[in-house]
Structure prediction request, 974 residues.
Amino acid sequence: MAGIFEDTADLDELAEALRSADAGERRVAILALADSGLPDAVPLLASAARDPDSGIRLQAAIALGSFDGAEAADALTKALTDADPAVTRAAAESLAELKDPRNADVILPFVAHPSAFVKEAALRALKELRRPEALKPALDAMRDPNAAVRIQAVGVIGFLKLEESVPALRSAASDSDATVRRAAINALAFSQAPSSSEAIARALDDAEWPVRESAAEALGRSRSGVSAKDALIARLDDEFWQVRLKAIRSLAALKVRAAAIAIAHGLTHPEPNMRKEAAAALGELKASEALAHLERAADDIDADVRKNVRWALSQLG
Amino acid sequence: MPLANTPTSVPVVVDNEKCIADKGCTVCVDVCPLDVLRISDLTNKAYMAYDECWYCLPCQCDCPTAALTVNIPFLLK
Amino acid sequence: MSLDKIVDGLTEVDCDVLVIGGGTAGPMAALKAKMKNPNAKVILLEKANVKRSGAISMGMDGLNNAVIPGHATPEQYTREITIANDGIVNQKAVLKYAEQCYSIIQELDKYGIRFQKNENGDFDVKKVHHLGTYVLPMPNGDTVKKALYRQLRRVQLLISNRYIATRLLQGKDGRVAGAIAVNTRTAEFLIVKAKAVILCMGAAGRLGLPASGYLFGTYENAANSGDGYAMAYHAGAKLANLECFQINPLIKDYNGPACAYVAGPFGAYTVNNEDARFIECDYWSGQMMLEFYNELQSGKGPVYLKLNHLHENTISEIESILHKVERPSRGQFHANRGTDYRGNKIEMHVSEIGFCSGHSASGVFVDEFARTTVPGLYAAGDMASVPHSYMLGAFTNGSIAGQHASDFAKDVDFAAYDPEDIARERERVLAPTRREDGIPPNQIEYKTRRFVNDYLQPPKVPQKYRLAQSRFAEVREDMETGMIARNAHELLRALEASSILDCADMAACSSLFRTESRWGLYHLRTDYPGRDDENWFCHTLLGKTDGRMICEKRAVDPYVVPIDDDEKDIYYRQRIEARA
Prediction:
């Protein structure tokens, strides 16, 4: 039957090949170890991650992402401080692939590492593992001078969805870095506290349009978003249509009927996405006061706009 | 009727300096969905043996030494 | 020629469950069959290599049909699919998919397949359709196959790569007994006796010929040559609604998907030469393709994917997905032509025809347990008849098939087949290798597919269809008496050419049978331009009876999710507008 089925790897043979003087042969052995799927391949790959040749270490760091568990996580966290940046990047990628929540025990100490890169990679890997123990180190990392670290810290906190983290997310909503602000605003959407939607609503006046866009969108998902309806209506005049569009969607999701006429003005906007979204929102709001606006839009040049206008008219009753 | 070969420019180009097929690597040959790559008996390096490419790129992406490039063939370019 | 030299050889193995096809549905079916009964012997057979095979060989950039609580309900999804398919669906199978797909998403998430999540870790589902919300992006979907392969290795599943299955084995009672396969590099035979067989062999995507004339420049992975459709047919399984072709919008010349589902949530869309959207139909369907086709033919063509109204940040984000995940050579294609999304629109076209339930509805008829009409034989993925199922349908229905087949195999013994069947199949397969001179497989294939384009591409004209049937018969005669394969690789192509020809014949036969028009462009007959619910509100089943290709009607099972007349009306009113 030899040759019919994919072989089960011979680990002794591959361990031998890893000791070859030829880097190419060592690399081929790593590829076979990655494919083997055998847990016993992990220690061999961990030692290959300390190979003198940086190409071999890179291959090992990639291969370790195919395994899960503390031993692979341990080898990868060590590779985060490799001398070669390509190896550290691969290690960070592989670390983020791991899914076993128990890996958190290995990764947690690295959140306090002096290197910003290591901190960032550790936080990124912790996010999907959703372990409550990660909250405290992530809150500490929110004070890191490096924005990339703060973004990942917000990620960890946001995934945990704990009300106790809300004050920290609220202050991150006014972070000096726009990407951190966006992440924090999106992360706050889970919170039921009115202070959370207030923090999001403040971001509707942010200097950066992507932050305003995120805020407009997040209010639609936020449990207490309706309290910010006036601020959302004010955003229907934003200079960026992307922001207006999200404001329209959120106002419809929050059932803010009072916004109907302001939304109806969107039916004549030059950007078809705006006109389409305005029509859909008026339908969702069953806004009969916008009947005349909708009827005027029925012959729009854009089929998607026409379709949504027709649907909206059918909803007015 | 006898058969003839028609010349055609093939999309897959291998850098023999980087290719480690001679060390036992068969990654590109393994991953090709259309099975068009082979290791040459002469050079012990990978090459495109059959002009039947879908330019899907696993060979290029999975090559451990970045030795392989897939170009969009002329007829589609 | 010493390359891929033909070797004489035959090995026999047996197993409880044989899964043929290692793309999307197959690995999941094999995994689930094994998990359901860890003592079962499960073999996964693949024509290429499971690591990178099938429609998602490179990756997939999103789920088009995720039914996730809070965003859509199984009943709502079933209603929409029913309406998009003009009512001709086996609702039980659609509903079962819709009910189970969320647990499959969660499972895939655990495997390490990465779906887009918001900052609270919830799936970031996007609204693309008018009614339901089903699109879940996978901006890092380039790791799908890797994650799947990892699971297969973890349970040390028996994987057999580079074998093309050619025919199924059956007992006297018709029950499936296994399959015959040939190694694609040596032409050695492998006989796999099995208690249950699951076919997951993908679309018939190498049927129509792309306009470039390049045989392998297809929309689908060109390895998907319809082998599963052909094999099921020869085993006597019924195939449903084959006349409901697959035709997709694509990037002209590149022939790959334009991925409007990816770019759509970012605000990109398809426009005509007046920069206006023109598609009235909401759901991906034959009606949508008809509108697309009409626009291309009209004075408002060509048709483009438009992104240049989007902000620079947004365009960069779209590029990072479209040029990396599903078909990464796309970036190179655009670069060659100097196409930049910031300034240029992307010219689109419609694809060549094929069979693919993943995008339309044509496939081997299956019930809600993925059972075909042949006992012990299952089918899942793009080749099974559950409509519009895309990648997530392949995973979910593969899972359903694997579990059911595993249970089935527990209670039965091997069916006894006639050894003569193997001898006969060996002769058939090896015939092209025994000729000194003849027609190479690529020419047989080219001619078949050229006729597919010339005569079968909709709108369907019956006179052209009958002409196609005569031409196909002539090609078949040449194939059976004159095709030559000089090595094992050419033999692989010869076997594929035979599958392609079988599919071409099936496409013609089923299209002539249904004397009405339905499913928009997919089945648009010039002699019967209207829909005829009175006579044709039914499936068509194509099968092999006494060696002949025969079509019959099969009633649509009573709906489990009722459709209100109003709902249907809203949809059809849209269509009337579309034609105005």
Summary: The longest strand of chain C covers residues 10-20. The CA atoms of residues 67 and 73 of chain C lie 6 Å apart. Chain C touches chain A through 41 residues (CB under 8 Å).
